Input
Amino acid sequence: QGTWRPVTASPLCRSSEISVDFSPLRRLTRIEYDNTIRDLFAIVAQPAQQFAPDDYIQGFSASFSLSAQVALQYEKAAESVAGLALAKGGPPFDCVADDDTCMAQLLDRLGRRIFRRPLTGEEKARYASIGAGKNYDRATRYGLMLQALLQSPHFLYRVEGDGTGGSEPTALGD
Output
């Protein structure tokens, strides 16, 4: 058994030259991505394990930029997740109304959870129109829409703070 020794802070930690700025936008880490996919679709896939490793600065995740390699990895993961979610079936993919109504219902149910905020009317219209006018079946349209949502910056990046751009502390809501 070892002897406990107090740990002294690194000189870097005591330095007054280190400045940590507020970062309102950061990309999901691999763990956050996998956990979010699990929570959204109740599937135990770990697509992010195939992603390039997260970037770290002084021990903290610092995933801000998006390389072409990582963008391609997100595209492949979105295809895989959409396929798994549709194959699993059940809510919210069990709509029996017409295609446009079902697309709107799916966006209402999943869009808010995927983007972590309500979708705007313009976003709903844009995502609902994916595959419209084509000779795609409902599952293909759902899959294409899910892939687009899962590759959106509104999913891949988290907005820290209240979303207003202010740096003042605010009370948390219910």
In short: The two ends are 48 Å apart (CA to CA). The helical segments are 11-14, 30-41, 68-88, 99-115, 121-128, 138-150, 153-156. The chain is about 45% helix and 5% strand.
